[in-house]
Amino acid sequence: MARYIFITGGVVSSLGKGLMAASLAALLQARGYKVRIRKFDPYLNVDPGTMSPYQHGEVYVTDDGAETDLDLGHYERFTGVSARQSDNITSGRIYQQIIAKERRGDYLGATVQVIPHVTDMIKEFALADPDDHDFILCEIGGTVGDIESLPFIEAIRQMRNELGPDRTAVVHVTLVPYISAAGELKTKPTQHSVRELTSLGVQPDLLLCRCEHPLPESERAKIALFCNVRKEAVIQALDASSIYAVPLQYHAEGLDAEVLRHFRLEKDPAPNLGRWADIVDRHNNPEGEVTVAVVGKYVGLPDAYKSLNEALVHGAMANRVKVNIRWIDSEIFEQDDADIAAQLEPMHAILVPGGFGSRGSEGKIASVRFAREHKVPFFGICLGMQMACVEAARHTSGISAASSSEFGPTDQPIVGIITEWMSKEGLQQRGADSDLGGTMRLGAYEARLAGNSHVSTMYGGAERIMERHRHRYEVNVAYRDALEKGGLVFSGMSPDGLLPEIVERPDHPWFIGVQFHPELKSKPFDPHPLFAGFIAAAVDQSRLV
Ligand code: GLN
User: Fold this and answer.
1) Whether residue 199 sits in one domain with residue 336
2) Which one of the listed residues 382, 454, 467, 474 is annotated catalytic?
3) Is the distance from the beta carbon of residue 471 to the nearest atom of ligand 1 less than 6 Å?
């Protein structure tokens, strides 16, 4: 029977609850347990799909086409377990479902209330599909004390009663700030935050104390006393050198051992942490370094390209090098006095990532052109591939008016809106005026790779691949011949041959554009082949520059 571990946050946000959940799951997995992680987001959006990357960071897309919180990316990268739609719920989705039921009359005249209707639905979500999991970790977004998170805490309280302490644990992640003027760590915010949680009927079992300085035994004892937890269950969580060092660090602090003690499973065998030691070793001891330019739009906030950042790091670890990522706002390449060469010449590779809207698109096209003409390794992802096709149309196929219909009306829509496509659920149809939420081509779709193509070599000779999508526009297959004549080969297509999935340039050392998001599937212990290949090409380039 599945056991449930709830992870709450106190004092402030951004304490790394998601990483903590992912790390604990990885540690339990390393002991042979089957784990799954879920995220409860208290905000009222139905999903983060329509939220700005600046507000919320990247939208992480699952195989089954859900647009989810970026923490699900950490979960997948750390455990290798594919996240599903049913692993992320928001207050918005809960209310949407409840109101739909109410309108149908399903509540048979009852007054619909937060307790029990909203809390029941939260519990239903937490308990759904336990399969044969040993542990289901549920991370609650936000901070204890937020109005929005109250129903979630109440649902945890009820589940604690219903399932009992043998099947539930609460880990509260809190901050122990260092006051430099006093030269002391302060436990009071943690005490207050735990008091807030207990006032809602939830006594935490473990406290994970984030701190910038080591937590002295005396402070640990004080927290234990005031917060009513065992001293061993007050876990020190110092800042780590990298996110991949977190599982080993928390293990050394006794996190997983203490969780197992809570569930009376402490006699279980020691974890096998070999793969984490290898990752940390690769990360900490690179044998060289490369610099990659990422020319995009949301470069001010690294979380906006979280998975991309990680996939580049995985590709670097696969090649035993360090990757320096130079984030460049493509708009700067649109200024009259822009010196693109000065910025891009020192780069060992150039990547144009996914994005939305016309802002900065000419700068992206200019970057593609630079990479093509100077034979610098180039990787275009989603919008990046679309821009590579527009660049090719304009400069190697003689279609000077080439553009994307995403940027406004055009006579040469090299990239156009997709109104029909086949999915596992059958024919999908959309119009230009469809809702924006949840209506893109989303989730895993198959691509067929051309034999003898560069990309099929990258995928180890595979003929069919499955990759995750999130886009509304598509390269227009009607331009295939014109683009191929200019040297841009369509080396991956949808099974019906209508949707271009991959383009490449055989006359270039490494030039690949993909309509999907390979970064979403890359893992530290299983780097995505395209990222491993791209960084290998950057290493080759670094020997030339
Ligand atoms: N804006 C483009 C589209 O909707 C690309 C999306 C993306 O890069 N994820 O098709």
Assistant:
1) no
2) 382
3) yes
